[in-house]
Write a structure and sequence with these properties.
The complex is a heterotetramer. Chain A is mostly helical. Chain A has 17 helices and six strands. Chain A has a two-stranded antiparallel ribbon. In chain A, strands 2-3 form a two-stranded antiparallel sheet. In chain A, strand 2 and strand 3 form a beta hairpin. A six-stranded mixed β-sheet of chain C has the order 6-7-8-3-9-10, with helices on both faces. In chain C, helix 3 crosses helix 4. Chain D has two domains: 216 residues, Rossmann fold, CATH 3.40.50; 133 residues, Rossmann fold, CATH 3.40.50. Classes of the chains: A mainly alpha, B mainly alpha, C alpha/beta, D alpha/beta.
């Protein structure tokens, strides 16, 4: 079905299920308990989870398959975002043209950068991409402010010359982004006892786009083209003496991953119409590398998992403050409560960077293959013990590669 | 002309810092084959050794001065550093004043120790791992280190002035036959440049004239060969790593008066230093030093208002632009050798 | 006319004359060996033939077409395949995939985006690859990672990767270097078999005289970048010039 | 998977299907909450109300963000009737009585802006969407303020800006749902120029170093307009990259440029570095055109001044508020803050504290949490007792008009907090600019958005 092998199809269906039921899966805790802090089922976070999933899936096509470590992919995301906002400023608040133009603009831009950077390999390639991305960031932040909005970011205003659509909504405000009249911010709410689940239009649009992107990535992985990309990582010398020209293959992978990044950037502004220069910073590029490696570079599902974990950590851990911590432990005796809060405090809230740093040191040290490898190991233990094959991690990890 | 001389001085100064960091990076890369993204953090920690020493020397006891009041109207708490009590206010004051130069001495064992712990505890497990893994794990380490520093010292820059004796500027104008006051340059920056020159010279001399250094250089040429000779590479790796850490740390200590230390200064320098190393040629020590000074000077020139007017934004991107051009014309960097980091 | 014609090839590295006016003609369906002491210029010659090095002067014609200035992959697409001294294979991929890659290269050329077709549906290509693996006796190892193979198997795999392209000329760079006597004999057997079954033109660079005399139809002796003599094996064996050239060399 | 689990899941699924079916005809928009639905985003329940404090917790402004958060905590405590009440006792409006806001206990959530507009918007969104925050406040840069302000406008919540000094926040990028208590670069220019004239005369040649981003440009434009108005000549103006660290190559040309005043349009770490380095390069000791060379830092912050150490001595600048002010409001605030945390508050802390109280007051006076009611209550609101003298929230642009402080770096500070001394309190009338000032012209407030 869908031109996929059975294992791939199962993996794809699992991801479809995760995306569709995310509003439930991410809101496991009732509103009133302290653990509700860990709920992630609100539109902003759900949208980010899938959008960064797209970004990482695309990055994996370059890094996971060809082994080219780019430190500049955030620039393509930024270009996608900027062109998306410009489409909304100039043409229409319908997000479809914005998305299309984002992908095209990022594709063209990555063609240019890729053409130059791919003349070199190894760390030289990495530094070239880093240099290009840093240039983009610096210029976007300062000199190019008329195009990029500079420090503030590019945003909509009440005086935009929108050709197909009004500059102002009926209530005198900036109109909202929509897809054929369905606003990105609109949600349906389902309340079940103490739980409340949000079904957001923007999230489901992003989710569908992500599923399409993921599906295309699976096809690409299993295609002759994907085979050639892996050959680049494996042995470029052999490749050229086998009559294959590695450069256009690598460039194609670079551009495709750039287009994925542009798509992610376009979706970001479709969900929230502001494009800031910081999303082009080299640390933002570093983040997508982390997502890919944390999940498992070169595997299908890895980047999605990696993106999920990092986006989730960033959003949830950074909002835990000391009063929240005290809230969790206030049932305990005072001295124990204070000790626990003091131990945990440096790792949450403003200290979430510390947690992030530690997490990925641990992953790189102990789990070089990322979450997918971890899942495989756990699965291995289960198999050896002849236990019931169960557990979500195993399910999602198994068909990874 | 004066303006050009001044910008060359600025460039040499900036270049000194780049060169010192890049030198350590290259040493680690050349001998250990490790791409160390935590190297900037070592620079930053060096600067914080200076900050810490100053604080330690200023450890005080509090007395309450009833004659004065604090901002809430309560009696003022006055603190007197113990050093001033022990050695008298003038000698004690001088010791505190000289905290930064003193920190150089303190920093050597501390940074060496940090280097050894890093190498033994983490880096050595990554010799055989792909460069991407090395980059990631050291990047993670860099984040952890800077967050720890932030937790202790806060996010704001901490002023760490040079000793009183070095405050003020030297007038090159007269020396070079220009008008007086036309080329003024702060003493401490001149000291920094001299200090960097000494360190760079010492590292090169060490590699050139000691047996240890020769083995290391041979190792940079051909690691397998040296391994086959039955030389205990492991121990030398630790020492090399410690040396690189000390070089970065000292660069940081002495830089503290120029740039008030903050927790993210390491990251700020890291990216530039990597560009420097790559422009110089991965694994080439002279390349790293030369590229450091070259990029420092170029950056200074690009910051001149005449140039910015000509090419807006050039001051922000000049280093990256040079890197792109150099790498496209000379694939292995200025003095790079074949076959290094090209997998 | 030979399938490969080299005329007046010169290459200098600084002060060293690596190749001096080398003329060579490889006849179709023969096995042409190039021997010579260390530093004779054998590897330089080979690298000029496959596009890795650009000679200072001279021409290299393959089937009447100029090869010089072409990139390695273009030369391969013309029908020249190369086997390396240490087997160059796609270590991270399976044995089958290793052979699939040249199959696709043969059918689709040096670059073609087939990003949405599934490999699984390329039945012809897969059976072609499997057949080739059977021919070199590796059909039971198709799912193994190529990197985990023994050295001998890696050599077989590399050979399979070259042969599946049905090259017009197969260049072998010391195919038995570092091999045990038994492995060497196996390789010789394999090469002989290929010659009889496929009638492929071969050019072989080799140190090992045993290999050379087992396989070669014509031998060219290279010394200090110049061609010393070219003849059939029987005449080379006792040739005084060859002895002279090899005298300083311990590996006679 | 146990049976119990399975049953529960199937029940959830079933309800979900029904929910979706119900939702089909008209997709509900963002704020349809099961209870307390009153037609605006995040309408609070009967017992508590949640405010969102979005401050930089990581990055270069983390210390300033931490101070803002302290102020917010203090404000919440005072609103809930804890502590000594602080400015509630001096505030000219007396509707707040320490029982929360309209009888609802005030709770708060925090977010990290990272001083990046992307991150700031994202954390604001999550506080609105996940935690149900009905007001967002805080921040330490104009880029963030503008970005979050427009987000709050779209989402239908009130934004009470923290530290933001660029004109755009209440100029080009003004929004109906956003309010700024902090002053701006135009006011800095108006307050500083007369003092500079008094100190340095009318015949001066100025060299500008300007941080290359929106706020820097705004600051330069304003101060330039007023110094040129004094008759000062602008010799040169150079843009410096944000976070440059080493400013030597920008500073060395100053000495030979013929300028006798250097204006550093820098803030934060840039200000610390450029100022210390300017002093290191001897600019402070120099004579030019027969006058003492002077340095001016238009926007001063005590937290930053600390980083510059002794370099700030005798440098003039402007600030929104300083703890050494002697009015009752300031004294009350410093006392509460100092007692709680052991050191005096910064200007960022002050503005955040005041903004929180002003919001609470506006809700109470307007009688509703509805953003439109709040906007109505705040527009044209005149108040006093909050530390800057009589203050007006101007209806046309949602900018507060109040006294501005001109300060000078102390030469011999008594302690690490006593770094600035107030030179002049420029009265509100002198810093008030007309609504149609060209630097603010492009903006449109739009109309208040209560969400839906």
């Amino acid at each position: 079905m869908l031109g996929l092998k059975k294992a791939d199809l199962r993996l794809f269906l699992i991801v479809v299920g995760l995306v569709v039921f995310a509003p439930f899966l991410l809101n496991p805790f009732p509103e009133s308990v302290g653990m509700a802090q860990f709920n992630a089922g609100y539109p902003d976070l759900m949208q980010k989870l899938v959008i960064f999933g797209i970004f990482a899936v695309g990055y994996n096509i370059l890094f996971g398959l060809t082994g080219y470590l780019s430190f500049g992919h955030a620039a393509f995301l930024g270009v996608g975002s900027y062109s998306g906002v410009w489409m909304m400023k100039l043409l229409t608040m319908n997000v479809i043209p914005a998305l299309i133009v984002s992908v095209i603009a990022a594709g063209l831009f990555s063609l240019l950068i890729g053409y130059v950077s791919l003349r070199r390999t190894g760390i030289y390639f990495s530094i070239l991409t880093l240099a290009f991305a840093q240039m983009c960031y610096s210029l976007a932040y300062s000199v190019l402010t008329p195009i990029t909005g500079g420090e503030t970011g590019l945003t909509l205003s009440l005086s935009d010359p929108r050709i197909l659509g009004a500059a102002q909504a009926a209530d005198g405000n900036i109109p909202a982004a929509h897809i054929f009249g369905l606003g990105m911010g609109e949600s349906a709410e389902l309340v079940l006892g103490d739980w409340s689940f949000t079904f957001n239009v923007g999230y489901y649009l992003s989710g569908i786009v992500m599923l399409v992107a993921f599906y295309l990535a699976i096809r690409l992985f299993r295609s002759p083209f994907g085979l050639m990309l892996r050959a680049i990582k494996s042995n470029q010398t052999r490749m050229s003496y086998t009559g294959l020209n590695p450069r256009p293959y690598a460039l194609a992978a670079f551009v495709i991953s750039g287009m994925y990044a542009g798509l992610a950037g376009g979706l970001m502004v479709a969900m929230d119409p502001l494009a800031g220069a910081e999303r082009m910073l080299w640390t933002a590029s570093g983040e997508v590398v982390l997502m890919t490696i944390l999940g498992g570079a070169g595997t299908l599902i890895g980047p999605i998992l990696g993106a999920g974990v990092i986006v989730y950590l960033e959003s949830i851990i950074s909002t835990i403050n000391s009063s929240v911590l005290h809230g969790w432990f206030n049932a305990l005796p005072d001295w124990l409560e204070n000790t626990l809060v003091n131990i945990m405090y440096p790792f949450v809230g403003s200290g979430w960077h510390l947690t992030l740093g530690l997490v990925f040191m641990l992953v790189v040290i102990f789990l070089p293959g990322g979450i997918v490898e971890g899942g495989k190991r756990i699965a291995g233990v289960f198999k050896r013990n002849r236990a019931e094959p169960s557990g979500d991690i195993k399910k999602s990890a198994e068909p990874g590669e | 002309m004066e303006a050009i001389i001044l910008q060359i001085l600025n460039g040499l100064d900036k270049g000194s810092a780049y060169a010192l960091i890049a030198l350590g990076l290259t040493l680690i890369f050349g001998t250990l084959g490790v791409v160390n993204f935590a190297h900037g953090a070592l620079f930053m920690m060096g600067a914080f050794v200076a900050v810490t020493l100053k604080r330690v020397l200023s450890i005080s006891f509090d007395t309450i001065d009833e004659t004065r009041i604090d901002f809430l109207g309560n009696p003022m708490v006055v603190s007197t550093p113990y050093v001033e009590v022990w050695f008298g206010p003038s000698v004690g004051g001088t010791i505190i004043d000289w905290a930064v130069p003193l920190a150089v001495i303190v920093a050597i064992p501390i940074m060496a120790l940090i280097g050894i712990i890093m190498e033994r505890g983490l880096i050595r497990h990554f010799y055989k791992r792909p460069h991407a893994d090395q980059i990631l794990v050291t990047f993670g380490l860099a984040i952890v280190l800077q967050e720890i520093i932030k937790a202790f010292y806060g996010a704001n820059p901490i002023p760490t002035p040079s000793p009183e004796a070095f405050i003020g500027s030297y007038d090159f104008g007269v020396l070079l036959g220009f008008d007086p006051f036309s080329i003024m340059y702060p003493y401490w920056r001149l000291v920094y440049f001299g200090f960097a020159a000494v360190i760079i010279g010492a590292v090169f001399a060490f590699l050139r004239f000691t047996t240890f250094g020769m083995v290391v250089r041979a190792g940079m040429e051909d690691r397998e060969m040296v391994g086959l000779l039955g030389i205990d590479i492991d121990r030398r790796f630790v020492i090399m790593f410690a040396i690189a850490a000390v070089v970065a740390g000292l660069a940081g200590v002495m830089y503290a008066p120029i740039l008030s230390p903050n927790y993210h200064m390491g990251m700020d320098f890291l990216v530039l230093s990597f560009v420097v190393v790559v422009v110089g040629g991965m694994g080439s020590l002279p390349g790293a030093v030369a590229a450091g000074f070259l990029l420092g000077v170029l950056q200074s020139f690009a910051s001149m208002s005449e140039i910015i007017e000509l090419v807006p934004g050039i001051n922000q991107v000049v280093i990256y632009l040079v890197a792109v051009i150099v790498l496209l014309i000379r694939p292995r960097g200025l003095l790079g050798r074949k076959g290094v980091m090209e997998d | 006319m030979g399938i490969l014609e080299v005329k007046g090839l010169n290459k200098r590295f600084g002060g060293l004359q690596a190749l001096g006016d080398v003329n060579l003609e490889v006849q179709e369906s023969t096995c042409h060996a190039i021997i010579g002491p260390n530093g004779a210029g054998k590897s330089t010659l080979l690298n000029c033939l496959v596009g890795k090095l650009m000679p200072d002067s001279g021409t290299v014609m393959f089937q009447g077409k100029d090869v010089l200035g072409c990139k390695p992959h273009e030369i391969n697409q013309m029908g020249i395949s190369r086997v390396f001294q240490t087997p160059e294979i796609f270590a991270d991929q399976t044995v089958l995939e290793n052979v699939l890659i040249p199959c696709f290269a043969g059918r689709d050329g040096s670059f073609r985006m087939r990003a949405f077709e599934s490999i699984g549906s390329e039945v012809d290509i897969i059976s072609q690859a499997e057949e080739m693996l059977r021919e070199v006796g590796m059909h039971k190892k198709t799912d193994m990672l190529a990197g985990s193979l023994s050295r001998g198997d890696k050599r077989r795999l590399e050979m399979a990767m070259s042969l599946v392209q049905q090259p017009k000329l197969l260049l072998l760079d010391e195919p038995t270097a570092g091999m045990s006597r038994a492995d060497t004999n196996n390789t010789i057997g394999l090469l002989k078999e290929i010659r009889t079954s496929r009638n492929i033109t071969m050019a072989i660079i080799e140190h090992d005289m045993h290999v050379v005399f087992s396989l070669a139809d014509v031998i060219t002796v290279l010394a200090q970048g110049k061609i010393l003599v070219e003849d059939i094996p029987e005449n080379i064996k006792g040739h005084p010039k060859v002895r002279e050239a090899y005298l300083g060399d311990a590996e006679v | 998977m146990s049976k119990g689990n399975f049953t529960r899941r199937s029940m959830l699924m079933a309800s979900a299907t029904t929910g979706a079916a119900l939702a089909m005809p008209t997709i509900f928009s963002s704020a349809v909450w099961a209870d307390g639905h009153t037609g605006f985003t995040n309408a609070p329940g009967d017992s508590s109300v949640t405010l969102g404090f979005n401050v930089p917790q990581t990055g270069a402004y983390a210390d300033e963000g931490a101070d803002e958060l302290r102020a917010f905590r203090l404000a919440v405590a005072h609103l809930n009737g804890e502590g000594d009440g602080g400015m509630l006792n001096t505030f000219s409006s007396t509707v707040l009585d320490g029982t929360g806001i309209m009888g609802r206990r005030v709770e708060y959530v925090t977010g990290d802006t990272q001083t990046a507009s992307d991150a700031a918007r994202s954390s604001a969104r999550s506080m609105i969407e996940r935690d149900g925050a009905i007001m967002i406040s805080g921040g330490s840069s104009s880029g963030v303020a503008v970005a979050v302000q427009s987000l709050c406008q779209d989402a239908g919540v009130i934004f009470m800006a923290g530290l933001t000094h660029a004109n755009d926040t209440t100029g080009k990028d003004m929004r109906a749902n956003g309010f700024r208590h902090f002053f701006n670069t135009e006011m800095t220019g108006r307050a500083l120029a007369p003092i500079l004239e008094g100190l340095y005369g009318t015949d001066r040649k100025v060299y500008h170093l300007t941080a290359d981003y929106n706020w820097g440009w705004s600051q330069e434009r304003s101060i330039r307009a007023y110094t040129e108005g004094l008759g000062w000549e602008t010799i040169n103006s150079v843009l410096t990259p944000v976070g440059a660290g080493d400013f030597s190559s920008y500073l060395t040309p100053v000495a030979n440029s013929g300028a006798d005043v250097l204006i550093l349009n820098h803030y934060g770490g840039d200000m610390v570095n450029s100022l210390t380095q300017a002093v290191q390069f001897g600019l402070r000791d120099m004579q030019a055109n027969g006058k003492n060379f002077e340095i001016v830092v238009p926007l001063f912050s005590r937290l930053m001044a600390r980083g510059a150490g002794s370099a700030i001595a005798n440098i003039h600048g402007s600030t929104n508020w300083h703890w050494s002010l002697q009015d009752a409001g300031s004294q009350a605030f410093v006392r509460s803050f100092g007692t709680e945390y052991g050191f005096p508050p910064s200007q960022a802390a002050h503005t955040c504290y005041v903004q929180t109280l002003l919001y609470a007051d506006a809700v109470t006076r307007g009688g509703s949490f509805n953003p439109c009611a709040v906007v109505e209550a705040l527009e044209g609101f005149e108040f006093d007792g909050m530390g800057n003298g009589p203050t007006l929230y101007r209806a046309d642009d949602h900018q507060c008009f109040k006294d501005v402080l001109v300060v000078r770096g102390k030469e011999n500070p008594e302690n690490e907090y006593d770094l600035l001394e107030i030179v002049e309190v420029t009265p509100r009338a002198d810093v008030t600019y007309p609504v149609d000032h060209p630097d603010f012209a492009e903006g449109q407030l739009g109309t208040c958005n209560p969400g839906a």
